[in-house]
């Protein structure tokens, strides 16, 4: 037994040193996170330019059919240039394959024809990587085949071969430039479905919010002189977050390490760190302000990056004006009287009953659970589809999700 003591002591000392080093690294990272430059690196990860040495002018290298995807340039209102891929809908590609393969065929005219013939998805991707990353390419392929739609997939400023550096305002300008590019090439606004994944959901909400505000005459920020009022076909949010501040409380690095969980015992420190946030992407506020168009929110139960509670919060925001405030449960926790506890229980039951009247719920076998809210929404319903699987980056590849998109937005 005596010979084991030094080994145990050495192990404990090594463990202490490891934890101390880990703690120091954590503190340094938190301190760096208060600086705008490092915030940008952590939030956007735009310098993670995967795949390495990508040949954007050659989409075929990334498993796309010959000349089915065209590399295009999009110019923004503040003079940045975005790299983007335009993928033809499968029916269009099959019918016009001989023309598309011909060197004499104008790519611009083919794009215009496709935009007139089929609906189009404006795909706004998440952080890190580029438009050539394999899971994103698989989205283009699936949407082109199963939804029979064209896809425009831009890389935000600072991503891929796009110029500039990312920012919240900048990404929204990029989304608007992509919308304007589609419109200038002949896509009717009602044929464009905006689809965002992760970070792209926050960008998509701000784009659509601005378009709706213009249509209602309340916001001219992004509108060009003489430009008509426009509203897209709908909006799909794949694995969204309510805002960056809440995301910091719930985000797991690599799906394993909680970002700010160690600070929960020191709430003031967490609040102090979040006070330095520059990029907030407050989707919840945008939703509360009131999107009018058809909206599909999708989140997987096995999303280890962003919990599906974020999507539930966004969906519930549409119900708030129709429901009374929830009773204060702190009274019960503090040992309220029996009379107060009974009153709270009664109010809670009434609240749940009223919510059931507003929300239609159903299950899709082997796909997930659906909640639908449509009261006083003349422009379209709000749907929350909570899937059983799909993870985070691959959620849009779940065929059950694609089927629901096709049904809700009359595509495919």
UniProtKB/TrEMBL annotation:
Keywords noted in UniProt: Hydrolase
UniProt protein name: Alpha/Beta hydrolase protein
């Amino acid at each position: 037994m005596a010979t084991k003591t030094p080994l145990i002591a050495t192990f404990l000392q090594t463990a202490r040193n490891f934890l101390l080093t880990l703690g120091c690294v954590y503190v340094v990272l938190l301190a760096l996170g208060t600086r705008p430059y490092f915030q940008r690196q952590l939030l956007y990860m735009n310098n993670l330019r995967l795949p390495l040495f990508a040949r954007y002018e050659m989409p075929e290298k990334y498993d796309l059919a010959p000349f089915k995807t065209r590399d295009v340039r999009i110019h923004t209102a503040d003079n940045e240039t975005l790299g983007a891929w335009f993928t033809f809908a499968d029916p269009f590609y099959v019918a016009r394959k001989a023309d598309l393969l011909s060197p004499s065929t104008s790519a611009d005219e083919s794009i215009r024809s496709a935009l007139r013939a089929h609906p189009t998805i404006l795909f706004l991707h998440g952080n890190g990587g580029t438009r050539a990353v394999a899971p994103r390419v698989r989205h283009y392929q699936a949407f082109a085949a199963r939804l029979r739609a064209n896809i425009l997939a831009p890389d935000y400023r600072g991503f891929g071969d796009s110029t500039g550096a990312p920012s919240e305002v900048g990404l929204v300008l990029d989304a608007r430039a992509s919308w304007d590019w589609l419109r200038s090439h002949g896509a009717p606004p009602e044929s464009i479905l905006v689809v965002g994944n992760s970070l792209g959901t926050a960008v998509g909400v701000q784009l659509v919010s601005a378009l709706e505000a213009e249509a209602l005459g309340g916001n001219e920020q992004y509108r060009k002189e003489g430009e008509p009022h426009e509203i897209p076909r709908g909006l799909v949010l794949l694995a969204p977050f309510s805002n960056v501040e809440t995301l910091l409380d719930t985000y797991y690095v690599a799906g394993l390490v909680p970002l700010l969980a160690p600070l929960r015992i020191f709430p003031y420190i967490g609040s102090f760190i979040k006070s330095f946030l520059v990029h907030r992407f407050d989707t919840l506020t945008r939703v509360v302000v009131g999107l009018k168009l058809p909206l599909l929110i999708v989140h997987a139960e096995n999303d280890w990056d962003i919990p599906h509670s974020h999507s539930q919060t966004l969906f519930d925001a549409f119900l708030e004006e129709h429901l009374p405030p929830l009773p204060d449960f702190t009274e019960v926790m503090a040992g309220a009287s029996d009379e107060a506890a009974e009153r709270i229980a009664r109010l809670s039951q009434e609240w749940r009953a009223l919510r059931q009247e507003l929300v239609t719920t159903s299950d899709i076998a082997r796909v997930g659970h659906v909640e639908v809210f449509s009261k006083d929404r003349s422009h379209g319903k709000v749907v929350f589809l909570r899937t059983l699987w799909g993870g985070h980056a691959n959620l849009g590849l779940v065929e059950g999700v694609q089927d629901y998109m096709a049904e809700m937005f009359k595509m495919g």
